[in-house]
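seq as requested:
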Amino acid sequence: MGTRVGIIQSNYIPWKGYFDFIASVDEFVLLDEVQYTRRDWRNRNKIKTADGLRWLTIPVDVSGKYTQAINETRIADPRWADEHLASLRHAYARAAHAKEQWPWVEALYERAKSLSLLTEVNELFIRSIALHLGIATKISRSTDYPSSAGKNERLLGICESIGATTYLSGPAAAGYLDQGLWREHGISVEFKTYDGYREYPQLHGPFEPGVTVLDLFFNLGEDATAYFRAGTPA
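struct tokens:
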């Protein structure tokens, strides 16, 4: 059968496609010793509100720290969790499954309050959401494995340590992945596509596909598991 591995940086409350990616591999590796990128998905994501799309952003300490890694990035204001909870409650109070889903979401944010590093918060949410979606994929950290310099070499080294036969990549990496090098090491490369997601009932106007996966839970409840995979049949 072989072993399929995927490696991606952690995101804050990611969209459904992130979890589709996790579910598509045997082991998913969080690559958080690489450089933190500003105005990216590392510390923010979108929710849908009556006033349109809104960013929920975790404030982080970046002043003068231009080369810090994701797993070195510290949270700047401990009040963020309460503020995000208030925003979610306001945006999704009328969602069909908000009442039943709220307890576990609120409990996650309560746990996140005590964490000081962005990577810890992201991993907490990613693991819990994957569990609620019924995803059985092993989730690990890139720091669990030996690392090498260079984009291809770092990823390749992790995959070889795991015993991967296939590396699943996001589509954006097609421009820099040296597929010939991977083939030389006996590992095939595939690129994930994010086409064919079904629309589902949402609050607040026309359907928006790219919001946080929490939108899926509040609107669909337990049926969320049937909508986070691309091309899932009706």
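The mean pLDDT is 95.
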